[in-house]
Amino acid sequence: MNVLIVGFGNPLAGDDGAGFRAAEMLAARVRLPEVRVRAVRQLTPELAEEAAQAAVVVFVDASVEIRPGAIDCRRLEAGRTAGVFSHHLAPESVLELAERVYHRRPEALLFSVGARSFADHSLSGEVQQALPALVGQIEDLIERIVDAGKPARPGGPPETESDFFSVMH
């Protein structure tokens, strides 16, 4: 089962770089042929093609909506957004483009870490402390996803797609 991980944010804008830095850490640690990791400054329409090729897309970003250093994960659906053809997209817009243009709708999750400051050139203490746990949670999820796509017994068929959903809970 192919997995695309996209960590995004500006690494020069304090905690906004959390997703970017998490993706860099994952790229160095996850060495599976089924997994592709991208660290990008912003989501762009070009990511829709890669998303369409994946069974699962994991987005990673900073959030001001949760407590600094807290980690949240939620399932995403393709969103009907007005600004789909802009140079900066929301994760749901990338999924919408994948569906509209490539007729593929991958499963998708958004991992967020609570941000404190976007003013410094480095991550806040809370986000620095949360990064290892964030990366660990994503690694655990990837392992479960990849295992769900393997045959239950040698020579047997891969697990069914409904089995995949059980690994996300």
Structural class: alpha/beta
Rg, rounded, reads: 16 Å
Number of domains: 1
Cross-sheet strand order for the largest sheet: 2-1-3-5-4
What is the CATH C-level name? Answer: Alpha Beta
Q: Output the helix-strand order.
A: EHEHEEHEHH
* Mean pLDDT over the residues: 87
Our estimate of the beta-strand percent is 15-25%
Instruction: From the 3D structure, determine the CATH topology.
Output: Rossmann fold
CATH superfamily: HybD-like
Fraction in helix: 25-40%
User: In CATH terms, what is the architecture?
Assistant: 3-Layer(aba) Sandwich
What is the overall number of helices?
A: 5
Overall geometry comes to: globular
Distance between the termini: 18 Å
Number of strands: 5
Largest sheet: 5 strands, mixed
Low-confidence stretches: 82-87, 160-169
